[in-house]
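Can anyone check this?
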Amino acid sequence: MAVRGGLDLGGTKIQAIVLDDTNAIVGQARTATPKGHGPQGIISELASVMREACDDADVQVGDLGGVGVGAPGRVDADAGTLANSGNLDGWRDATVNVVELLGRELGGGVPVFLGNDVSVAVQAEVALGAGRDIPSILGVFWGTGVGGAVIFDGEEWAGRGAAGEIGHMVVKEGGRQCPCGRRGCMEAYAGRGAMQKRAHHLHHDRGRKTQLFHIMHEKGKPVLTSSVWAKALEKSDGLAHELIDEAVEAIACATASAVNLLDVERVILGGGLGLRLGEEYRQRIEDAMLPHLFNDVEPVPLVLAEMGDFGGAIGAARLGL
């Protein structure tokens, strides 16, 4: 049985899988993305959780035909480097050779491949999920940040290496500061990291009431995860609803603008928060897009990603095929 490793690196979690040649997951492991130890600490954790997934699959790391990493930020796949990753500790102003360092951590001998996290997740949807047989696609993945990917005629448009960064389309000139350091980006209103910062400010500095941080501590979470936001919405928390409503409008505005430019045939909504909030919020985003769409007679369908939480890791494992 031929097996490959896949690593989905996010701002809050690392998901590792072992994928066989039928695209079935035969081993998996998951851990929190480390904070406070910089890029090297994150790479060491990537290697550790990959070994855990191999143990779960009853294989050795050396048995893997390759290990792929999907990571947020600007990827140079040829050089093996990751840069401008504002949601990873110590990575905002760093350019790091992930392929070289992770290969060394894994002991050498196993090819390592690097791709953008949303790019590989959308490629998995194209091959196996909601993007099958659809010639042109925009992927919008709503999680710690908001990433995107563009597919034309079954091939991804990479631009100069940073195409698809829909989270950094400006939705309000001079608006809130984004984790990227700029102002007014969609991610400044919709990224889970930015939303947590806003919630903290409104609650702790402005005295706004919210259950968000109580739920976070109750669940034993270090940050406001997707499950925390979902629980707060379920409890009709006013601040949670206010911030999620802002996120929906920002995502809708940026996505509609991208559709007006590209005229794709389908938009796929994924990411931890997008999938956790599910059909109700998919419909809300689709409805909120309509006033901004040039072609509002035949609006583009917005669908949920079919590969779920494993889409990024599956797409990463398929890198290098």
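Reply from J.R.: I decoded it. The CA atoms of residues 135 and 154 lie 5 Å apart.
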